[in-house]
């Protein structure tokens, strides 16, 4: 440490050191803090330990800063919003410097920030700071597990838990967010006055901060969004570094678009669900039924709109039309009554007897009542069975999903006939479930019957026909029938785009699927152009946390990877993996697949040590959610096995390659390109190990 001439600020710590290990920790961390050389950080010049009757006492000497505290500056009416944000950005620069040197402050608050006469912020008191490096995360001068370090209103939710192991640089992001909120609003985001510590901790961990715009309307929009992101209770949703925080502040000051976005509707619903589990569980089913009801109503409206418009036919068919309309109205009324009685009211106290009603309990109860209570309303019963099948599929209950799907199809055929668009589309829905259950031949026959019937009886432009055509295209892609998939997409998609009721999310999903087909066909430029235009259009109207939007971004990352641009793909695949875990839940199949894609990208960049632990975690969890055998299971196991083999870890690669072959051969067959790729790697692994007999056995299965 250098010893400057002039006035110092001397700080004597109250802790006394009686253990040699404590002395060594103090000496080490003072050396760490002395490395902080930034105009926004008060420099530490000297430190030591002096004897006293009560034992050794540590001290350190630091730069004496003349200036006003941030609290004083905040009261200056001449400091406008722009000036306040500029101060926050400069404070963030100083904190970022400390983070780069491996130091977390842990006690950021206005009292520890002075503003020098030239306007330069100076952060004081790193006396409760700690090292960022996990190897150096040792207990500091005043830290014990369970002890609350710092000033409570500025502490992050993880910090008030008192466990030092939970802290990282994002705790400083939160604290600076509180400082920024107070500097702009003149008050704290939480009112902790007159609250005991346990209650204050509960508020910080559970309650939402007051909206910044409620005290300063000038902050509506971007400024409020930036501060709200810094104050997220879940540190994964905060800015992941103080530099990101500062960058967004400067984007606002430069009139550029900020990166932060307001919390999505999906996220807000999930937060609400945590507080109202019973109600939301039942309402989730209700929402599915309402959406399906809207689809049924739309189909009926399209049918009526497409009716014969000649006067004579209208007169002769008037009686039948009136009877049909009355029957449809009665069916709709029956659905509404059933939904209200058995799903929405399942959460009522007089029904639930004060306990939380889970979605499965509500579904199972409703499912057992459909055929008895709607015995005289079979079309309504068919609709309810269809909705229940859809929900059970989402819950990965294959047997119940198939049961309700089959029952729905049976009732539609009995009430509407085999040529009705609703019946024919239900055939395709049931075929999808049969396919999920690996009943391939049965599924294929029913799919073809569905599409042929819709082309004949509903016409080539009917929305049901188009939906089923696109469903067939997606199934064709699953079986690597790429030319057939592209043919169906290119016939159906332009017609669907012209349909007035076309949904933005559905359109994005379909366009993304077509881009994937182009990519698989070797038309990488077409794939990239379509996907980029589709995402740009969807971004105008869709929530960025929408699962379909995330899936399309994931596809963009895959397309870039297919072009060999793995460096451009990496930030996209990383963002998708983080977003999918946040929105869908860490164990959701799509979230696991997103992480698997991240592992593949790391591996392609030569960063296998980062890829391997991801693969080791997600592959068994993906396989565990799929039927056995399944082509997707074979594909993800294959990726991991080949990567291991590429790094000469044949003993670990071999069982994975064999397992991959079992899945792929059991679904695609031995001659499929993916299966053949596994066979080639098995030959290579056996040959490298000198196992000629097994090498020759697998070589005999090669198609070439």
Structural classification: mainly alpha
Low-confidence stretches: 127-150, 264-327, 344-357
Instruction: Assign an overall shape.
Output: globular
Return the average pLDDT rounded to an integer.
77
Commentary on this structure:
This protein has 704 residues and is mainly alpha-helical. It has helices spanning 20-34, 70-74, 81-100, 157-160, 169-185, 197-206, 222-230, 242-253, 265-275, 277-305, 311-316, 318-342, 349-352, 359-367, 370-373, 378-394, 398-415, 421-436, 440-457, 463-478, 482-497, 504-520, 524-539, 547-562, 566-584, 589-604, 608-623, 631-646, 650-667, 673-688, 692-699; strands at residues 8-12, 44-50, 57-63, 68-69, 103-104, 113-115, 121-123, 130-131. The strands form three sheets. A three-stranded antiparallel beta sheet has the order 1-3-2, covered by helices on one side. Mean pLDDT is 77; it is low at 127-150, 264-327 and 344-357.
What's the helix and strand layout?
Layout (H helix, E strand, L loop, with lengths): L7 E5 L7 H15 L9 E7 L6 E7 L4 E2 H5 L6 H20 L2 E2 L8 E3 L5 E3 L6 E2 L25 H4 L8 H17 L11 H10 L15 H9 L11 H12 L11 H11 L1 H29 L5 H6 L1 H25 L6 H4 L6 H9 L2 H4 L4 H17 L3 H18 L5 H16 L3 H18 L5 H16 L3 H16 L6 H17 L3 H16 L7 H16 L3 H19 L4 H16 L3 H16 L7 H16 L3 H18 L5 H16 L3 H8 L5
Antiparallel strand pairs: 1-3, 2-3, 4-6, 5-8, 6-7
Helix pairs in contact: 3-5, 3-8, 5-7, 7-8, 9-10, 10-12, 10-14, 10-16, 12-16, 16-17, 17-18, 18-19, 18-20, 19-20, 20-21, 21-22, 22-23, 22-24, 23-24, 24-25, 25-26, 26-27, 26-28, 27-28, 28-29, 28-30, 29-30, 30-31
